[in-house]
Amino acid sequence: MIEGSVSTDRVPVIELEVDGRRWSAVVDTGFNGDLELPTALRGALNGVLVGRVTSHLAANQTIEEDVYLVDFPFDGDVLRAEATFVDGDELLIGTRLLQSHRLTVDFVAERVLIERVN
Questions:
Q1: Number of domains composing the chain
Q2: Quick one: which of 24, 31, 29 has its CA closest to 7?
């Protein structure tokens, strides 16, 4: 189980330990992929380039990015996941990474809960 909070900007956020450091991670329910990660983590997660992906963003924006397979620590396991890498210090958790979990976002209590269901 992973617990987090809802930020003052109304964004669901959790903290994860990756490569010996605590990282802020936004749970992005509009992102149906696995992960968007800081470039600084590519080597630590054994990123293997597997191709390119086209992503459709808000405001009718389309981008093409390299996609990597990574070994990502999540909820007590190491998951094989697809990730893109960007400059910055924040992780984005997509809905595909949560396929074995239940996500609860309680905006009133400002609480986020991610529970494994299988």
A1: 1
A2: 24
pLDDT tens digits for the chain (118 residues)? 999 999 999 999 999 999 999 999 999 999 999 999 999 998 899 889 999 988 777 788 888 999 999 999 999 999 999 999 999 999 999 999 999 999 999 999 999 999 999 7
* Other Cβ atoms closer than 10 A to 6: 18
| Cα–Cα distance, 55 to 32 (Å, whole number) | 10
Put residue 38 in one of left, alpha, beta given phi > 0 → left and psi -120 to 50 → alpha.
beta
**Any bridge partners for residue 96, and if so which?**
none
Q: 107: Cβ–Cβ under 8 A, 6 or more apart, which residues? A: 6, 10
Q: Which domain holds residue 89?
A: 2-116
Residue 95 burial by CB count (10 A; 0-12/13-18/19+): exposed, middle or buried? middle
Q: What pTM was computed for the model? A: 0.89
CATH of the domain at 99: 2.40.70.10
